[in-house]
Specification:
It contains 10 helices and 49 strands. By secondary structure, it is mainly β.
Length: about 725
Amino acid sequence: MKRTYLTFYSLLCTFCLLVAACSKNDPAGNGGGGDGDGGDGGDGSDDSEIVAAPRDHVSVRTLLLDMVDRDELARYPTPEFTCKQFSSYDRSSTVKDGPNWYANGDANQFIRAEENEGRTEFVMMETDGPGAIVRFWMTFAGGNAGRGTLRIYIDDKQYPEIEGTAFDVLSGTTVAGGWLASSVSPLTPLEQRGHDLYYPIPYAKKCKVTYQCLETVGSGAGATPLNETVYYNINYRTYKPGTSVISYSAGDRQKYKYLTANVQKRLDERPRDTGTGHISLNCTLNPGDEQIFTISGGQAIRHIGMQISAGNNNQALRSTVLEIAFDGQRTVWVPVGDFFGIGYMQLATNMWNVSATTEGKMDSYWIMPFQNTCTITLHNYGTQQVDIEGSAGYSAWTWDNRSMYFGADWHQLSRINTRIDPATDQPMEHYDINFTTLHGKGVYMGDGITLYNGGNAWWGEGDEKIYVDGESFPSHFGTGTEDYYGYAWCHPNTFIDHPYIAQPIGSGNYVMGYTVNHRHRGLDGIPFTQQLVFDMEIWHWAECLMNYAPITFWYVQPGGGNDKELDIEGVQTKVAMSNKDFVVYPENTMAIEGEDMHSVDIESGQWERQSDFGHLWSAGLQLFWKHSSKNTKLKAKFESTIEGIHHLTAQFAIAPDYGTFNIRINDQLIAEGLNLYNATVATKQFDMGNVQLNKGTNTFEVEITEFAPNYNQGYFGVDLLLFSTL
């Protein structure tokens, strides 16, 4: 009897120890210790180190490890998954190129509203597993902005595993903090930032995400938010049925706190392997030159560093092209500045994959494996000599059936009119352009845009639309270009330290100027097995001219890639530093833009440098005089580099509210009773004859003599003066 009792007691103790061990490994009860996921037990001794993640299951741990495993990005993922997106895009956009395809009501578009324990929750995402949320972005407007409650329900559980205000969950410390839960730009008020959660949230069976506003109108299915505008994008993976996924639980924050801290440290410090072997990329390239460098053997490029110098460095960053071919297959052809994330100005950025300094140092840490041979070619498509100091670092790589080539492609839409589709040359209020079309099997890894905005309005209202493997409707349909790039409300403020998103400059966001945006993907990379098509809307609030240059980054298995023609004309195009760089003036002329006149003095009305109808003006602006009285004058000055008698061709605005004018230069009457009335707004060139110019300062004077029919005030615009040598 005693022996029987002791035996039973021994078995009971053994069972309790096993249960305790299982609970330690899986406090949420998701399958015990058989998942290989371990647990740190609160002492940091287990599972806190950065190692290669096991491939036989998916968990918070494996996903965190993959975030900082550069090599894994260059291998086709296993377990395999698809990546899609829930967002608040305008639900009236249903048919490609249909009447509402570019609809812009992207706020408060939820799947439904539902009652839960007496509260109204708006459902943002609902999907079956196995899967994982891998990126979650939101922004808000209104008096209650972002202060409602965000809830994430996992599997069949009645209560959420994550609950808190949107700010606390997405960019606070409820889930992660650091770069895994942050907001951009820090220069922007918190309420107006993009809030970006990159901490992975896996689920085995299902996932539902809801948002409860502080105030609503109505209840149940008919409820709508009150005093709050909500925008969201949620990227999520769906794994093949049968994939072992260990669901996120509220205890995972404690369970993986040491691993999370180490991942955060990696993301913050960005340790970078420059390889065990190195080749020099130093060279001097004259116009039209190229220099080829070769690496042999099964290797992977781990670092490309470069610094260039030229008389015009801005142009050199665009006209110097990096081309890379792996095992005879070219997959990279991009301007060096765009490749390193700064476009054509020497800016600072510091992402996970690229960095640059204002002193000119540029570095890439994309992993680029190959089987036998890699050739790196540097081209100078410009008209000036370019000196390059650079190197490429590499180390051994064992090629297998998951290995992929790195790819990047680029093109520019130069001087496009924001109301004319360049693909059809037809007037369009908005239109889609193709960033890239990829074929084969691979993973889409991100993109960037470098643009010059020729109008005084926001350029990026357009949504991304990504089609995977023949989809008729995009599985990624966004809510605005700035949302896609992680910020919000078209703010021009810079952010350059986030590992995955960057705006090194935003000066052209809602005024004329230059903008660079980048988004590199980690866990939110998009696998494709046949084809991937990435389109972006051109949705500008003004009609104007733009230069718009997208670059895309991807991995693809041999034979896949992009068949887009090389945009040699684009890299040779003069980079735009001001609107004047859009203009090609006739040879042997001196051009005076109306908006460049200074010391403007008026006797009535108001004057401005007008950007409305900017596509009509030679550099997007004109000197505009409005609300003037009859027989009053506008006087201005302009500077000349030439003197003597020169022939003048003047370009003035003509419009329904323009009347009749006398015009003088240096007190010389060059036009009397000039009628600028026209049924529509346009420009017209007038032969003004010969004019005496002073070297230095000259005067321009216009007097209104008659109003336009049915108007009781005057309007006038001078766009451009062209002086040619006799």
